[in-house]
């Protein structure tokens, strides 16, 4: 009798615990949804009015940003293109390097060496972005300045940036996204079942063929997730970029001083007022929309691939 009562009491306690945890999970999920909705509504409420006051065409496609001039101009096309081109080039350069590093750590390196390299990569992920910017300003910018002087020594039309230009920004961003993409790619590669690798090797494939034709395709969804997070960090970075890119609203070119959408907000928010301040919120709304579009597109692609694999 006592044993039965103990079992029943244990079942009731277990059921109560499960219900409590389920309630906590539901609350956390609802909180996340509410947070996204509140941010979305606030960004639209704060940013949309200025767009229509300035004019959507003049705001998005204008090429001159002069909010404090006698005749204010609020064109953000140079900042939009700089953010898109800069992020695109960062991903184009950074993802192959990150993927090769992940393959090295997870499949090629000796366990002892991998045990040294992996913590070092994780340490890079924890370094504040402003530190990357400071190191870039002290070490990288002077070297880029020398390269710029060498390439444009006979070009009187070129405006020298002293090394604070888009190229410096791309290099710093590339270094910054590496830890995120590498760590997630390592986890994804290690999650691939050993049976895949063993079957490939048993069929006569070499180790490199197995890695690039079996393991990487099998880990593709996880690697893409790492790339998405890398894109988010690259397009949303401000402090490091403002120190090395020159922060001038020019059209994107490797040796032009440029201003990203994020740095445009950071550099002027402290003294902006009136329509100028509202326009900065509108820049934030544009940035928010870009990030949402990128996430929606990539998530849609991943879901379609998952559905195709299930079939």
UniProtKB/TrEMBL annotation:
The keyword Nucleus does not apply. Keywords: Cell membrane, Membrane, Phosphate transport, Transmembrane, Transmembrane helix, Transport. It is found in: Cell membrane. One of its GO terms (biological process) is phosphate ion transport. Residues 80-298 form the ABC transmembrane type-1 domain. Belongs to the binding-protein-dependent transport system permease family. CysTW subfamily. This is Phosphate transport system permease protein. The gene is pstC.
């Amino acid at each position: 009798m006592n044993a039965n009562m103990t079992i029943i009491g244990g079942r009731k306690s277990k059921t109560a615990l499960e219900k409590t945890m389920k309630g906590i999970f539901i609350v956390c999920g609802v909180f996340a949804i509410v947070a996204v909705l509140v941010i979305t509504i606030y960004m639209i409420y704060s940013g949309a009015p200025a767009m229509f006051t300035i004019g959507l065409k003049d705001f998005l496609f204008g090429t001159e940003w002069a909010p404090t001039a006698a005749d204010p101009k609020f064109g953000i096309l140079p900042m939009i293109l700089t953010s898109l081109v800069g992020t695109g080039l960062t991903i184009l350069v950074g993802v192959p390097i990150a993927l090769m590093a992940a393959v090295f750590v997870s499949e090629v390196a000796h366990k002892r060496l991998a045990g040294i390299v992996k913590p070092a990569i994780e340490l890079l992920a924890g370094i504040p972005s402003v530190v990357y910017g400071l190191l870039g300003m002290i070490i990288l910018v002077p070297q880029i300045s020398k390269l710029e002087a060498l390439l444009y020594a006979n070009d009187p039309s070129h405006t020298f940036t002293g090394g604070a230009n888009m190229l410096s920004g791309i290099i710093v961003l590339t270094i910054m996204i590496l830890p995120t993409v590498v760590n997630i790619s390592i986890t994804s590669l290690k999650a691939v079942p050993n049976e895949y690798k063993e079957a490939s090797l048993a069929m006569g494939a070499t180790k490199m063929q197995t890695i690039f034709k079996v393991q990487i395709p099998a880990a593709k969804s996880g690697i893409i997730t790492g790339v998405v997070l890398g894109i988010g960090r690259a397009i949303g970075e401000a402090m490091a970029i403002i120190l090395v890119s020159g922060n001038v609203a020019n059209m994107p070119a490797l040796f032009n001083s440029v201003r990203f959408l994020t740095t445009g907000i950071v550099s002027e928010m402290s003294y902006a007022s009136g329509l100028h301040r509202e326009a900065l919120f509108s820049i934030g709304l544009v940035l928010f929309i870009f990030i949402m579009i990128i996430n929606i597109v990539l998530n849609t692609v991943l879901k379609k691939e998952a559905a195709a694999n299930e079939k």
